[in-house]
Amino acid sequence: MTEPGDGRGDLSIGRLAVYAMGAATAVLVLATAIILVLKPGPVLGLIVGLLGVVGAIAAMGYVSKRMTRNAYGRDREDPKPGSDR
After folding, report:
1. How far apart are CA 7 and CA 21, in angstroms?
2. Reduced to 3 states, what is the DSSP secondary structure of residue 1?
3. First to last CA, the chain
4. Three-state SS for 83?
5. 41: exposed, middle or buried (Cβ count in 10 Å: 0-12, 13-18, 19+)
6. Which burial class, exposed, middle or buried, applies to 81 when counting CB atoms under 10 A from its CB (0-12, 13-18, 19+)?
7. What's the domain of life for this entry (predicted)?
8. Closest CA to 13 of 21, 23, 4
9. Residues 11/17, Cβ–Cβ less than 8 Å
10. 3-state DSSP call for residue 12?
11. Residue 80 carries which DSSP code?
12. Which residue of 1, 5, 25, 38 has the fewest CB atoms within a 10 Å radius of its CB?
């Protein structure tokens, strides 16, 4: 039986895209809710919105890295100079 992260390589690109976009959407919805509830001024609202965009990008990166590592395993170390690999 295969365990997660054993390098079996069964990653669905469609599932990866849906999960990454879902994570980004969740962060943007949270930022929107904060803006709607707090009703900040223009500058603070812009800062919250920009933090939401940065958080969405970070969430997509985190989800995609985690799913990729679960499918293909951790990165191997780079070979040393002069090695046969």
Report:
1. 24
2. coil
3. 29
4. coil
5. exposed
6. exposed
7. Bacteria
8. 21
9. no
10. coil
11. P
12. 1
Using CA atoms, how far apart are residues 10 and 71, in angstroms rounded to an integer?
6
Residue in the block written with tokens 């895209």: 17
Could you give the CA distance from residue 52 to residue 54 in angstroms, rounded to a whole number? 5
Q: Give the tens place of pLDDT for each residue, 20-74.
A: 999 999 999 999 999 999 999 999 999 999 999 999 999 999 999 999 988 888 7
The answer to whether 49 and 31 are in contact (CB under 8 A) is yes
Dist. CA 74–CA 61, nearest whole Å: 16
Q: In this structure, what are the phi and psi dihedrals at residue 65, rounded to the nearest 5 degrees?
A: -65, -45
Helices (H), the chain: 13-38, 42-72
